[in-house]
Amino acid sequence: MSALIVTLLSLSGITTLLAVLLVLADRIINNYGEVEVNINEGKKKLKVKGGSPLLFILAENKIFVPSACGGRGSCGMCKVKVLSDVGPILPTEEPYLSPDEKKEGVRLSCQVKAKKDISIELPEWLFAVSKFKAVVERITELTYDIRELRLRLLDPLSIEFKAGQYVQLIIPPYDQVKESVMRAYSISSPPSQKDAIELIIRKVPGGIATTYIFEHMKEGEEIEFVGPFGEFYLRPTSARVIAIAGGSGMAPIKSIIMDMYEKGIEREIYFFFGARSKADLFYLDFYDELQKKYPYLHFIPALSDPKPEDEWEGEVGLVTDVAEKYLKSLPPSDQEGYLCGSPGMINACVKLLTRYGISEDRIYYDKFA
Amino acid sequence: MKQTPDYDRVQERMKPGVITHFGFLGSDDRKLIDIILDDEITVRKLGLTHKKIADRLQYFYDKAEHAPGSWVVVDDSFSVFVDDTRGYLPCPFEHPGLFPKVNVTVVNRKTDEKITYSVLSIHLIREHGFYQGKGSPFRLEPRDIKRILEL
Amino acid sequence: MGVPINPFVLMFAAVFTSNMVLSNFLGMCSFISVSKELKTANGLGLAVTFVMTITSVLNYIVYYYILVPLGLEYLIYIVFIIVIAAFVQLLEMIIDRISPALYINLGIFLPLITVNCAILGGALFLIIRNYSLIQSLTFGFGSGIGWWLAIVALAAIRQRLRENDIPVALRGSGITLIIIGIMALAFIGFSGVLRVQ
Prior knowledge:
The complex is a heterotrimer of chains A (369), B (151) and C (197). Chain A is of the alpha/beta class. Chain A is 26% helix and 28% strand. Chain A has eight helices and 17 strands. Chain A has helices spanning 2-29, 54-60, 99-104, 208-215, 250-263, 284-293, 319-329, 343-355, and strands at 34-39, 44-49, 79-82, 106-108, 118-121, 130-141, 146-155, 166-171, 181-186, 196-202, 222-229, 240-246, 269-275, 297-303, 315-316, 335-340, 363-364. Chain B is α+β, with helices and mostly antiparallel strands. In chain B, helix 3 runs antiparallel to helix 4. In chain B, a hairpin with a 7-residue loop joins strand 2 and strand 3 (98-108). Chain C is 72% helix and 0% strand. Chain C starts with 6 loop residues before the first helix and ends in a 9-residue tail after the last helix. The relative contact order of chain C is 0.23. Chains in contact: A-B, A-C, B-C. The A-B interface holds A 74-76, 92, 94-98, 175-179, 183-184, 202, 204-208, 211, 246-249, 274-276, 280, 304-305, 318, 320, 341-345, 347-348, 368-369 and B 13, 15-23, 65-71, 82, 84-88, 90-91, 94-98, 100-103, 137-138.
């Protein structure tokens, strides 16, 4: 009996002793004290408890660096330029950084831990970004695979953004998706509307976020988003606007056009919208109405594959070919390109527009939308 | 076969809900290394290589890339449809770069058989010899590729 | 207590003549898996050396000053593992602090040092062979260095082999096992030169 007690006691004693030692060691070794995060050469200084990843430190201080995976190092979006030395690039970052970025000191903020004073550089617009709570007020089926969401803001109650910018919806865990993910969607409502935003979302086969939006999201549920992000917005010139979009690429262009109309901007706008057949078209009536009120706007939908029953009398062909037809016949003028769509479409459009004398620095589109 | 922790980590990333909703493995409960090895054997038996297959898949994408959203006839006997959505995917093997969410559908007009793959699939085959797990919506059977794409 | 062997001789013996991995075949799992890159292999080798040296001494103290007086010699396995596990935890914290890159590269193998049989084996050898404290220290250190030497040599060989044309069936673990076999043959040449017990 006593042998048993001695065994138990000594075993527990040894284990406890080691555990206490470990806790003490943890206190000493993992204590980085207070560190200072210096943003944009002293523009903003944060005093934080050291040791956690930069992305989280910034988020705690209401600076929302875009991220789709929530800090798991799998999306490569949370890039931040680090000016001070934070050690070598980690194997987890390696895949997402181009040689140029490595040279400039760009790092993934979810992988870099602030263990000592650190100085970083962030784009100015990031400071305007915040996290919003909203309620899904309305879900509208625009086509068989495109939905419009209207989100009414709960906290904070209003949002300031530039027409053309996007937000990141936070999709909660569901089914087999264990962690929340963030996905970027452009705002389609005009900035004059501050208490709600609208998003146009096309179903992506197998997409984590769109599957949620199409199969699980209900009107009346609460959802969070972060934004606004992006440098896709109308440049204040007097150039003619050549806008080309397809599918959900409608969103930012619609926001820009409504903004121009509301402000009474007197610039010619040619908006080419590509779709396959009539089933893929939406907002036709909306643009018909708007064109009557706003003569500068020319909305040109183009169907690449119209069905006989569509009785389509508009333009037929690839949106790039239709746009080319117009570009040829338009009187020469200073022009700017605004593109929104898939990477393939953007490539094709950039090629087209440069051929018609619009230099690449005057063609605007979202890099990762 | 026992696989290395590197592969275990990749296999974790292939599960549903990490990179895509369905994941890359479908209902396949084999180890990643076995999936790759089995396909490697099949590809060899067919007298092909991963590179040849990837090149063929890339070929159709290149031919139709300029016209997303509409059918393009390639070499008279194939119809190709490129469906691209906004957004990018990373490679589950943690390779550099992001791949656009583009799905390519090729129909063999003689047999009316079709095959659908993504730009990421081309990369997975070329660099990793990975044709996805059985039951994955984007699983590509090397035999089907050979037959339908006339390799 | 103790055997009449000079501690330094024991250290050299542990490195060469009775090398943990190449003579006793202990610690094979991480030896094969982490020997792809010289840099990582070096890191793991040093970590194992560090753990082995310190835990040899710790286990010696625990055994002779706690277990023996209490008559609990039969707890040797469980207690040794606990001591090693705790120490590896500590090491993990230290590595994460000084070199996050090494920490991520070592990945799962860092916590797996806990169950690296070379380390438990080393600790058990020093009890079975009746080493003194100093002998335990040098033996532990020597065994660690021996393991480090072996894995670094293997990693270097594997790196050079990477560009070579190896038959498909032998790629990966196959060729590695053959290399290890040949390395072990070379080390057999040392056997019997120095006495370890």
